[in-house]
Design brief:
Blueprint (H helix, E strand, L loop, with lengths): L4 H20 L6 H40 L3 H33 L7 H6 L1 H11 L1 H9 L5 H12 L3 H7 L2 H18 L6 H21 L1 H16 L8 H24 L5 H18 L2 H15 L4 H14 L2 H18 L11 H17 L6 H13 L10 H41 L22
The protein binds aspartic acid.
Aspartic acid binds next to helix 18 and helix 19.
Amino acid sequence: MKNKLHILIFVAMAAGLIAGLWLSSLDPSTPLYENSIWLADLLGKTVFIGLLKMIVAPLIFISILAAIVSLASRAELWRIGWKTMAFYLTTTSIAVTLGLVFVLTIQPGLRGDRDMIRASWAERRAEIDHEFGAKTAKVDGAEGLTAADTIKANIQKIVVNPFKALSEGQTLGVIFFACLLGIALITVGKEGRPVIPIIQGMNAAIMRITGWIMAGSPFFIFCLITSLVGQHGPGVFELLFWYVLTVLVAIAAHVVVLLTICKTVGKMSPWTFLKGIREAWMIAFSTRSSAATLPVTMECVEENLGVRPEAANFILPLGATINMDGTALYEGVAVIFLIQLFGGMPGAEIVLTPVLTVVIFLTAVLASVGAAAVPDAGLITMVLVANAVGLSVEYIPLIFAVDAFLDMFRTSTNVMGDAVGAVVINRLEGDRMAAALATDGRDRVPRSRRNRPHDSESRVDG
Ligand code: ASP
């Protein structure tokens, strides 16, 4: 069953697409349409995404704790920590650069129906507000967001009551407290030792819950896709064709870069990697939340790619929280697209200079770090990038219609970036970690991997 899961998920996605297209052809005021969308939303969003989110905060807390108590020393933790941060920052910068190169080359904002969109913007905006009221309110609510606000807000999210962070799913706060507690536990030594097997047992139990949720994922994914396609239909793409194309081409280029890094630095063939993370990729694609996907990402990376749990438990939660390559790329492309399209109109009197492009690069990286790993988050933090260059939030609603679709691609790219990070750091640190654990004499390889025939090196190609 487990080996067939990706096939079942794929079939469910295709079936959801067909069911959604059929629903979108119905009159939205009919009871059949309303009830079907209601049911698909209830099962896909409320139940499935709810279940995944339910385990995310405890999973992050327990897995980081398990990772830290499994590492032999604080020096080892710092080394993995800074390498992870450096890796994530580098790949995010590459992603934004690729986005900028493609948007400046393709120039989607200068193509297609530019004049028509500019001339009819007021009416179009009214229609968009009517259809996407909730998104408009969120973007308008973020008006005035600056880099200083984002930095302060993130610090506030780190230094927070851990129970509040856990209950509100504030992952930065959970990570910070778990790190502190983990370091304290290894520092106290003998007194802390009895707690370690408990943490590892909890970690294994949470991953078991993930397995149960995953067993039902094809059905839930069918509901998610049906609801998404059923509510938006295929028509929205015509107007924004060049914009969508630019984002997708840039994302494809970034995926190639990630796979190249995986091959050259992580010493793992792209095929092995893609095969190993396909379930996480599909869940990210359909849930549009890298936080909700985290339990599955951890399972795929550890079970299929042979990344040591000590590494994955630390690197992946950090990645799901701060490393968003797809989001960063998208934010840069979106803001430049809107400048190309509306430049010179009231609230968009902007000339795209090299300095302004650098400002977009820097704020896109920052905004992606600050984005929550939930659907639509990139759309909101994009306001930071727009504000930094003086683009009024008035124009952002233009891209609402295709945002959910693009969110599928950027979220799955975010998850892929996290997984490549885990493979690379595992490769760079694997031997050292194994030696340190052997010297330390503790059997710390937790959960199901203990009985498995292969270890981290078995999946490394070349
Ligand atoms: N949905 C994305 C994620 O969860 C964030 C975004 O909206 O770009 O990774």
